[in-house]
Recover the amino acids of this structure.
């Protein structure tokens, strides 16, 4: 006997054994056993529904009973007096959404006061919801001389920053070596140690930037015969993270998202390129202010280096003119050039070898890239192709650099230009005198 036979035999053994085991209702004929089972199922369903209704009524009764005993200190919803109340009485499901726990913790009370403070309850929300919800904000947050424009969003931002700074200023609680709290607080507190910063003045820049790049023309400790443009540019870009002449980035290749491409873009201007040039009083007064700013920062450094005299003043003026001249040459080119359309397209890429040859070898791009990407120098050979974001900028730039590199005077201009990019970049990190000057031009 197979298993199939056993099953059939079991199936045939009806639990109702009477001869007329079928019932006929209209056109349909049922077995009595099926009717019996169907009836039991319908009965069970009805019982479940009745239980669910009883349960729902009970739960609701308990909730309504709890509410008066534990009246919230502050109404969780400010809409309690208006139409909302009527709505939630006639619709039991809304009642379950209103929190019934009392608002008696400090954060909850603060949030409630904040929400209430911003309301203007003299206005009907149905007429003007915005004024109802936010109409009290301006009165509750009057503008101050240092904060002319405050919105609910910026207020949250400022409050969060304040709380964060208060947290960072608080002494370290978890002081183990691996404690993130200790690391973050020490880092922030070292940046905020203005007193030490004030005492050091420009010294960190003189010692840690100007010395390693081989001195500075204005301080008279720079030697033009040992000037090596490629080397100085690499120091400025790689060691000091400062853009001069151009910048480098890595992006996903627009034509093949599995690959990445090195991009070169213009950079190294103290102002937007449209502010250079000679036409118009506005531009002239902007460039005059800018040169004054350059001169002021340079003079501060000469004071802090302890070499300030009439000769350094004269060299400072030459420094300002040199750096401005190079920026001006770059800006004037940018005024007449267009961005490269689809820079990642193969026909628009250029090889590092081409770029170097175009520079008359005064800038070795392979050598430069190996230093910039020192983790993976093997990726860069003279055949490596890179994207150029501004049409023609590098074709223009390299001959300019080559031209400047060909004379001692030109080398001095390149040097002063690069030192200026460093000064401009780092001034905001030095003492208040420096920071103050950067504010004049940058804000
Ligand atoms: C509330 O709105 C009314 C009508 O717009 C206005 O007159 C009143 O000054 C507002 N109150 C506050 C505190 O802003
Ligand atoms: C400048 O550098 C050149 C070559 O490196 C060297 O011969 C010369 O003595 C240096 N001059 C000064 C003043 O250091
Ligand atoms: C300039 O420095 C680079 C290294 O950054 C070096 O490869 C190159 O030979 C140097 N050029 C001169 C003329 O010394
Ligand atoms: C590039 O070098 C060649 C040969 O050394 C020279 O004739 C040419 O003037 C140079 N070009 C620039 C822009 O310096
Ligand atoms: C090269 O420099 C000289 C002198 O600074 C300048 O007169 C000339 O126009 C420059 N040439 C190029 C191609 O930039």
């Amino acid at each position: 006997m197979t298993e199939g036979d056993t099953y059939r035999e079991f199936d045939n053994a009806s639990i109702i054994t009477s001869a007329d085991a079928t019932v006929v209702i209209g056109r349909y004929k049922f077995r009595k056993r099926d009717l019996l089972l169907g009836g039991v199922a319908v009965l069970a369903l009805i019982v479940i529904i009745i239980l669910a209704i009883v349960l729902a009524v009970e739960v609701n009764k308990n909730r309504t009973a709890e509410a008066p005993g534990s009246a919230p200190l502050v109404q969780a919803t400010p809409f309690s007096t208006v139409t909302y109340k009527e709505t939630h009485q006639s619709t039991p499901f809304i009642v379950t959404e209103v929190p019934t726990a009392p608002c008696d913790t400090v954060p909850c009370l603060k949030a409630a006061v904040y929400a209430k403070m911003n309301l203007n309850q003299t206005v009907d929300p149905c007429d003007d919801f915005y004024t109802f919800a936010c109409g009290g904000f301006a009165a509750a947050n009057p503008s101050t001389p240092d904060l002319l424009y405050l919105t609910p969003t910026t207020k949250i931002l400022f409050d969060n920053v304040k709380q964060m700074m208060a947290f960072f200023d608080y002494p370290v609680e978890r002081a183990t070596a691996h404690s993130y709290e200790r690391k973050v607080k020490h880092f922030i507190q070292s940046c905020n140690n203005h007193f030490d910063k004030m005492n050091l003045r420009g010294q960190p820049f003189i010692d840690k930037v100007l010395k390693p790049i081989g001195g500075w023309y204005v301080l008279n400790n720079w030697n033009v015969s040992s000037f090596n443009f490629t080397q100085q540019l690499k120091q400025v870009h790689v060691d000091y993270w400062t853009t001069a002449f151009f910048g480098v980035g890595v992006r996903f290749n627009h034509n093949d998202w599995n690959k990445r491409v090195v991009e070169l873009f213009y950079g190294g201007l103290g102002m937007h390129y449209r502010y250079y040039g000679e036409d118009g009083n506005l531009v002239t007064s902007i460039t005059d202010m800018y040169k004054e700013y350059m001169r002021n920062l340079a003079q501060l450094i000469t004071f802090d280096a302890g070499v300030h005299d009439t000769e350094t003043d004269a060299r400072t003026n030459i420094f300002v003119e040199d750096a401005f001249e190079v920026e001006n040459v770059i800006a004037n080119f940018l005024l007449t050039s267009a961005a490269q359309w689809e820079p990642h397209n193969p026909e628009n890429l250029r090889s590092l070898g081409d770029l170097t040859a175009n520079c008359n070898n005064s800038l070795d791009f392979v050598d430069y890239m190996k230093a910039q990407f020192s983790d993976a120098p093997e990726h860069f050979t003279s055949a490596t192709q890179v994207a150029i974001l501004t049409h023609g900028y590098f074709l223009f730039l390299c001959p300019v650099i080559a031209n400047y590199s060909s004379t001692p005077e030109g080398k001095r201009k390149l040097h002063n230009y690069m030192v200026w990019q460093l000064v401009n970049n780092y001034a905001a990190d030095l003492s208040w005198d420096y920071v103050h000057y950067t504010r004049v031009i940058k804000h």
Q: What stands out?
A: Residues 1-10, 66-96 have pLDDT under 50 and may be disordered.
